């Protein structure tokens, strides 16, 4: 565990040293803030003290934010040869993947912390359903873990950052959009299965204030499978070499 945290700390420091963290956080805050306060179904238009507009748009922002964050995590190290140096040190493939995963989760958590002024501002507008707000933030973190694991898997199978970014988006589209659309076209157990595979189905449930163990299990399963596949790719690559 110590080695994993060391890798996570190193990666998080790299984010801020290279300005990646600052750029992505500013873009995230700018996009989510614009659609929360100024455009579309903003809080003033709704006339209620709620952060639902923010939660409705923020996960779409993360949909692009996270692939941009993860695209270089493994692909760039493979291209530059630094991954081989890392894997020859006394750490396992799983520790490397988990360390990078934790660093990404920490950065998303920092980005969400900067949105707390939204929460404070809303509380001055009127009575707030604090439980729903807390659930919304929990949902944001859970969907982020799933998208990060998908991004790391995409980054593990190529040494091209652009390919990793696009592949992560394609996989994300299936889980966020296509499964949801297909579930509306099928009846019975298969339709329910497709609905269960949809990230948006589980996220929307939590963001409305309903925290169900099935939703938590779903996000945890997606995250584990993504990380497991990334670790498997690295392990096979080591065997081939």
What are the main properties of this structure?
mainly alpha; 241 residues; 82% helix; globular
Structure description:
The chain is mainly α and 241 residues long. The protein has one domain. Helix content is 82%, strand content 0%. The chain contains 13 helices and no strands.
Roughly what is the average pLDDT, rounded to an integer? 83
Low-confidence stretches: none
- Strand runs, count: 0
Order of helices and strands: HHHHHHHHHHHHH
Domain module count: 1
* Tally of separate helices: 13
What does the overall shape look like?
globular
Structural class, please?
Answer: mainly alpha
Helix content: over 70%
Distance between the termini: 27 Å
Overall radius of gyration: 19 Å
Largest sheet: none
Percentage of residues in DSSP E strands: under 5%
Question: What topology emerges from the helices and strands here?
Answer:
Elements: H1 2-17, H2 20-37, H3 43-46, H4 52-70, H5 75-80, H6 82-88, H7 93-113, H8 116-125, H9 130-156, H10 161-183, H11 188-197, H12 199-207, H13 213-240
Helix pairs in contact: 1-7, 2-4, 2-7, 4-9, 4-10, 7-9, 7-13, 9-10, 9-12, 9-13, 10-11, 12-13
